Amino acid sequence: MSSARRRSAVVLGFALLLPVLPGATASAPAASAASARTWYVATSGSDSASGTLSQPLRRLRTAVDRAAAGDTIVLRRGSYHENVAVYTPNLTIRAMPGEPVWMEGARVVTGFRDTGSTWTRDGWHYDLDHSPTLTRGAPDGSPPGWQFVNPAYPMAAYPDQVWVGRSRLRQVATAAEVGRGTFAVDTAADKLVIGSDPAGGTVLASTLSKAISVRATGVRLIGFGVRRYAVSVPDHGAVTLERANTSMTRMKVVDNATSGLGVSADDIHLTDSTFSRNGLIGIHGAHSYRLKMRGLIVQRNNLERFNQAPMAGGIKIGRSRGVSLRYSVVTQNYGTAVWWDESVYDSLVVNNRITWNTGHGVHVEISERAVVANNLILKNDDKGIQVVDSGAVRVYNNTLVSNHRPINIIQDKRTQENAQSGHDLRRPWPDPTVPWRVDDVTLRNNVVAYPREVANCMLCVEDGSHQRSAAQMGVRSQANVYVRPSGPRWLVVWSSGEGNPATFTTLSAFRSTTSQETRGVLTSSGVVTWRGRPAAMLLRWGRERATSLPSDIAALIGVRTSIDRIGVCQWRLKW
Questions:
Q1: CA angle 320-326-330, nearest 5°?
Q2: For residue 337, which of 374, 382, 304 has the smallest C-alpha distance?
Q3: Which residues is 482 bridged to in the sheet?
Q4: Measuring CA to CA, which of 47, 67, 165, 435 is 20 to 30 A from 203?
Q5: Cis peptide leading into 451, omega within 30 of 0?
Q6: Which long-range contacts (CB under 8 A, 24 or more apart) does 321-324 make?
Q7: CB 149 within 8 A of CB 131
Q8: How confident is the prediction for the chain on average, in pLDDT?
């Protein structure tokens, strides 16, 4: 595809006000302050210019090609219709503070002709990859849980995107199906057909597949937006961070066809950034040790309605160690909000707001050593917190309101012996640190309130292999408050090992049989508001019944170990 065909000016977006913040320390030696240079890029510049403030370059790609290790590239206000790969280490790419800057994957389209009830643009030569899986050219999976595309949304993997004004059109398979609010690409006839009058606003169509591929260590991206790229599933993201010690600060990655961001290297930091309205998922990645995420907004992803598994929704990370998510909002995603899957070891989900997602709130699957603490987990359509085949999981001081099953702990039949797909290749096989077993799960000081009407239990512990009881799995529950105005009938489902699990309708029966929840409370009254804030009764129970916190968890939350709260401890979080 020729670059001339893709070149176009595009309308400006809204401002991102972005001071330079320090990023991660790069592994390669940085250039000295005396030798480092700042390059300027502006839509009014020229690629034959010197790259100074008064004589800026025109394209980011030109600046990246000229820059040396340790240099800084400053983007002036405007939209840049480019696809850039970065191979220079320790490079900083940032917006000029106070100026709105977008990497723009769409171009303005004109020249439509009226074809009755539709409008047609001839000479549309873009034939974008629509592979439905992470392997380019491969067909979609067929086993349950491995099929990306939902048959009810067959065009999900097609990365074509069109807007008329502010309205995003929905893609259909053929020109004959186009109606108001939809569009089709006729690749055989080289035509773009839309069902909304182009006189109603500027027509934009995505023509570039990726914005930035970071393939050097120590690169920092600061303060600009990335939007409307026609990224296909195997592209992994409109932005991909593929080398260690890279960072994104105050970035916006929005309205891209499938994945917003893909991470695949160690020591990546994501700070104060937004990932929203992407077609498949906000953030996904694997093999990313010490991935740190803080101050993120991950909202309304999976607009194309891919199946929730194998991946869709907010954030999914696999085969990584030392992963953390803090002080972030993960909301309104069509899928699971936060999903650690396949050999994620030593992870944190702390001080977050996780709300209104159609899948699970927090899902810890075939992983080990996780802390889920001080989160508001509200109105998720599936489980609030789900732990599957995972051990050493500590769940402290969360407020779970109006989720399906609030807390679900499951051992299924998967083991390291019968399935190797989730193995971290940097670890020995079998990996003794991630044994794929529910073992040592601690639940303390949580509010478990108002389960959905369809829920059949509030605390659910089951072994699908019928081999171990909840006690043998090391599940311990103490000082939790259960709010059940009416249903479900079963308060607790508790694995008995062989045969069916035990079920308890009252906390007193559960306590007397298992010696769990000696400090727990079951009530039908409203001890939390719909937003999860504590009422006076809950504060009193906290003073009387809350258990002390391990020192490391208290430090993570930011409270003393002798906490006197049940549920979320702090409401002045930087959400």
A1: 90
A2: 382
A3: 448, 522
A4: 47
A5: no
A6: 321/289, 321/290, 321/345, 321/346, 321/424, 322/289, 322/290, 322/291, 322/346, 322/347, 323/288, 323/290, 323/291, 323/292, 323/293, 323/347, 323/348, 324/291, 324/292, 324/293, 324/294, 324/348, 324/349, 324/350
A7: no
A8: 92
CB within 8 Å of 461: residues ≥ 6 apart? 409, 410, 470, 473, 475, 492, 493, 494, 495, 501
Peptide bond into 56 cis (omega under 30): no
3-state DSSP helix/strand/coil % of the chain, to nearest 5: 10, 30, 60
| Mean per-residue pLDDT, 153-178 | 98
Contacts for 347 with CB less than 8 Å, ≥ 6 apart: 322, 323, 324, 340, 364, 367, 369, 370, 371
Short-list 268, 307, 306, 302, CA closest to 285 = 268
Rounded Cα distance, 443 and 479, in Å: 8
- The structure tokens listed for 9 are 């000016």
Tokens of 71: 């240099």
Burial class (CB in 10 A: 0-12, 13-18, 19+), 54: exposed
Q: How far is CA 433 from its chain centroid?
A: 25
CA 507 vs CA 120, 392, 454: distances in Å: 66, 25, 20
Query: Could you tell me the two tokens for 107?
Result: 């171009």
Contact 243, 268 (CB under 8 A): no
d(CA 230, CA 118): 23
Its pTM stands at: 0.92
Residue of higher predicted confidence among 419 and 242: 242
Convert the pLDDT of each residue in 199-255 to its tens digit: 999 999 999 999 999 999 999 999 999 999 999 999 999 999 999 999 999 999 999
Produce one character per residue of 393-425: b if its CB has 16 or more CB atoms within 10 Å, e if not.
Answer: bbbbbbbbbbbbbbbbbbbeebebeeeeebbbe
The phi, psi pair for 555, rounded to 5°, reads -65, -40
Phi/psi of residue 382, each to 5°?
A: -115, -145
Sign of dihedral through CA atoms 132, 134, 140, 146?
negative
* Amino acid sitting at position 339: W
Given the structure tokens 């004109």, which residue do they identify?
Answer: 110
Both tokens of 550, joined, read: 């391990």
Q: What is the rounded CA–CA span in Å between residue 108 and residue 518?
A: 65
pLDDT tens figures, 80-105 = 999 999 999 999 999 999 999 999 99
Cα torsion 450, 454, 456, 458 to 10°: value is: -20
Strands 119-122 and 113-114: antiparallel
